[in-house]
Amino acid sequence: MKPGKLSQTIVSRSILRMFHIQEDSPALVPSPFDPCAMLHAEGREILISTACRYGKKETVGVYAMAEAFGHLTVRGAKAKSIFISLFLPEWLDEEKLKVITGRMAKAAAVFKISLLGTKAEVLPGFEDILVQVQMQGRVEEKRLVNGEDFEQADLVFAGYAGLEGTLRILEEREEELKKRFVPAFLEPLKGQEEKLFLDHAKGCIWRDGVLLAHQAGDGGIFGALWDFTVGTGHGMLIDLKKIPLRQETIEICEYFHLNPYQLASAGCALFAAGDGEKLVRDLKACGLFAAVLGTLNDTNDKLIQNGEEIRCLDRPVPDEFVKIHTNKF
Fold first, then answer.
1. Disulfide engineering: 67 pairs with which of 80, 243, 266, 296, CB 3.0-4.6 Å?
2. Do 212 and 282 fall into the same domain?
3. Residue 28 forms part of a structural domain
4. Is position 251 within any domain?
5. Does 212 reside within a domain?
6. Are both 78 and 195 inside the same structural domain?
7. If DSSP codes are grouped into helix, strand and coil, which group holds residue 284?
8. Domain that holds residue 106
9. Which residue among 112, 139, 166 closes a domain?
10. Nearest alpha-carbon partner for 74 in 175, 210, 250
11. CATH of the domain at 270
12. Last-in-domain residue among 139, 167, 193
């Protein structure tokens, strides 16, 4: 199979359908479009999200935490605890392991997340550091409506598409990039990992008029748009030029011949809203860059406009970071 997330078809056919779902077991029915699970405990709704990241740099675990944190946040849950699994290569020494976990512990302290437990093992023949996190949070706000509860809405995007992937590329290929770009261009990107945590969005997501929210992640904004529309049963028409990109992302992607819209984007979120312009103002007031991309509708068409050209959104493909990691451009 290809690197990256499995398609929704394979997940449904070869994973979910293999299990018999008891009616009284999960509060949220497992879905290939939803990265979270929900349980009821003592009258409260507990949301659980999982994310994993791989690489060779010490920030790999922070990126996994950021994605899991965002999945909880956009569903109205406050992250409370985390279970960490580390799968390590033989070349990694204990000192570097401490740096990896130290970076994760720092992020946990900033966002007041306690450690539930951990599992760590060295795998023979493994070349990368792989960190998987399971984050739990209490749902503190009302549940978002279901996709079938509305026919049309504005589609709003918050954050900068591909920023997570840009940061990871810089870490993996810094020496190469230094030969192409001046230090003043690259320096502002360093130390930005914690800005991928959607903590600022908590006060905006549950404003009146917000119908649904979904965080982007592996596969970029294009992957998120596919999951959001197919998962809710809606079509869309968006303007490609409205998707926010940082100049650093544009130029680094051009250098490596990557598609920035298919680059990892944890910390970015999509919203269905009754009044998109009002939500954009609210999100900006919370410190997030935001824009109305277009509209959701009650068709099956997933259309992207780029100037005079209109095309259909393609099915998700492996994240562009895979090309960096495997040197296959």
1. 266
2. yes
3. no
4. yes
5. yes
6. no
7. helix
8. 33-139
9. 139
10. 210
11. 3.90.650.10
12. 139
Per-residue pLDDT of the chain (329 residues; tens, 9 = 90+): 666 666 667 777 776 667 666 655 555 555 656 778 877 777 778 889 999 999 999 999 999 999 999 999 988 889 999 999 999 999 999 999 999 999 999 999 999 999 999 999 999 988 999 999 999 998 876 555 555 677 899 999 999 999 999 999 999 999 999 999 999 999 999 888 888 998 866 666 666 678 888 999 999 999 999 999 988 889 999 999 999 999 999 999 999 999 999 999 999 999 999 999 999 998 998 888 999 999 999 999 999 999 999 999 999 899 999 999 887 65
Q: How far is Cα 182 from Cα 189, in angstroms, rounded to an integer?
A: 13
Region at 241 (left for phi over 0; alpha for psi -120 to 50; beta for the rest): alpha
How do 302-306 and 309-312 pair as beta strands?
antiparallel
Q: Can you say how many angstroms the Cα of residue 258 is from the centroid of all Cα atoms in its chain?
A: 18
DSSP conformation letters of 33-59: T--EEEEEETTEEEEEEEEEEEESSTT
The residues with which 312 forms a beta bridge, in sequence order, are 303
Contacts of 233 (CB under 8 A, 6+ apart): 147, 148
- Could you tell me which of 188, 212, 167, 197 has the C-alpha nearest to residue 287? 197
Q: Cβ neighbours of residue 177 under 8 Å, at least 6 residues apart?
A: 169, 170, 186, 252, 255
Q: Which residue has the tokens 């990241």?
A: 53
